[in-house]
């Protein structure tokens, strides 16, 4: 199954330009029990080309594709990846958790995490502009530090979820990404 938003084609283009190193990926927010289920994984094409990696989801697991059950939060992401033996300089990181995407990205890109992914893709809230007069760094509050949102920290079919593109770009730029 192809990726949800043509990320697999974009990744192929990026890696044909910058090259591959350890061919390791991490994708969290994997939303199926297998490659054939769900809305289309960003890493399936890489896996089919012989890459290896870690898939994380809060509800599902499948050892045959290294899908592990883990609820990812900004306060736990580093330890989850360390415990899974993820290399600190992985080639690709995909974040799609419909809520705390920005906060998890920020935690993972912080110097104290030790992780340095080469390529990162993060789901964003397309209700907000990237450029123009209405572009603003807006995000969903971090559920790890806002317990009032516990149990409601996921997309509920409204525009109140995730982060604006501008917020994600700002966090990535603060960590030296372009």
Mass-distribution shape: globular
Mean pLDDT: 86
Oligomer: single chain
Query: What's the number of helices?
Result: 5
Distance between the termini: 29 Å
Helix content: 10-25%
Structural class: alpha/beta
Uncertain segments are: none
Say how many strands there are.
5
Biggest sheet strand order reads 3-2-1-4-5
Rg from alpha-carbon coordinates: 16 Å
Largest β-sheet summary = 5 strands, parallel
How large is the share of residues in beta strands? Answer: 5-15%
H/E series: HEHEEHEHEH
What does this structure look like?
This protein has 178 residues and is of the alpha/beta class. The chain is built from five helices and five strands; from the N terminus they run αβαββαβαβα. A five-stranded parallel beta sheet has the order 3-2-1-4-5, with helices on one face. α4 runs parallel beside α5. The longest helix has 12 residues. The chain is globular and about 45 Å long. The mean pLDDT is 86.
